[in-house]
């Protein structure tokens, strides 16, 4: 096998109350990586489409190839030669797990080309290194679901303990990306390091409620638990019209609405596709009233995560 094409989906991280510990993948969009062996040593990025020339071409600085270098080092493969083409199908600094999708597609493609020496779970720490390259923080709530699919819970980072939980089949995600850019690094920098006991108790209740609500398909419990008293109040100031857009989603049928990852994208969860569409149209209309263009994505929860497209 000399060439591989892999796809890794966009993701919604945090899911309201679960900062750095909850995330799920959606069906589309996703980044696509083409990986080929070549005679000359080293990894080269020969082309990136869809980034308007903005992403680093240096393999160590791009999350798609940075993760491949980590994997090759771990496997002690030294005399290698590979070329990489990245099709960037989502905006940068979007809150849609853009850097994560590239990292996951990269590490899955390389593992496949090498004959799958590692399992999907074992690839996770390498994909997380892609997040360190992009934002300085190796969080797993985007790479986890993009790699594994489903609704992911990260119980612990040290040691890494990650699992997926079942979600109701009729649960749909609305993802609205306003035409603004927020870097994860900046959105993490503004967070406070101290959290009050009162807020910790409220957040723990919602985290427990959301997990139970998803596992029991209890839509009212899901709705009541999609509340973030710690991160959203700080970060929402970076998103124009945040409150109005959130209100528009909920008053048009969504169970709840919050910031996707570190923003500016906002997501909502709804029971049924029709509610997800109605919520999305209302959210877009509210952004449009403020003169902000946006893109809308409606999706069920992607249960499979990254996939190989072609050998
Ligand atoms: N392949 C890549 N795709 C996207 N961003 C990359 C990639 N490689 C490096 N980066 C860098 O990562 C930064 C964007 O990552 P960031 O985490 O801020 O955005 P995001 O992945 O869309 O957000 P989020 O993680 O909140 O969903 C940019 O500085 C970009 O140059
Ligand atoms: N949990 C991370 C996700 C970034 O997409 C954050 O909110 O900073």
Give descriptors for this structure:
Alpha-Beta Plaits; about 35% helix; globular; about 300 residues; Ribosomal Protein S5, domain 2; alpha+beta; 2 domains; binds adenosine-5'-triphosphate; four-stranded antiparallel β-sheet; 10 helices; binds L-homoserine; seven-stranded mixed β-sheet
Task: Give a verbal description of the structure.
This protein is α+β, with helices and mostly antiparallel strands and 311 residues long. The model has no long low-confidence stretch (mean pLDDT 96). The strands form 2 sheets. Strands 1, 2, 3, 4, 5, 6 and 11 form a 7-stranded mixed β-sheet that branches. The protein has 10 helices and 11 strands. Helix 6 packs antiparallel against helix 7 (219-225). The protein has 2 domains: 3-165 and 302-310, 2-Layer Sandwich (Ribosomal Protein S5, domain 2); 171-300, GHMP kinase, C-terminal domain (Alpha-Beta Plaits, 2-Layer Sandwich). Strand 1 and strand 2 form a beta hairpin. The site of adenosine-5'-triphosphate has 23 residues, from helix 1, helix 2 and helix 3.
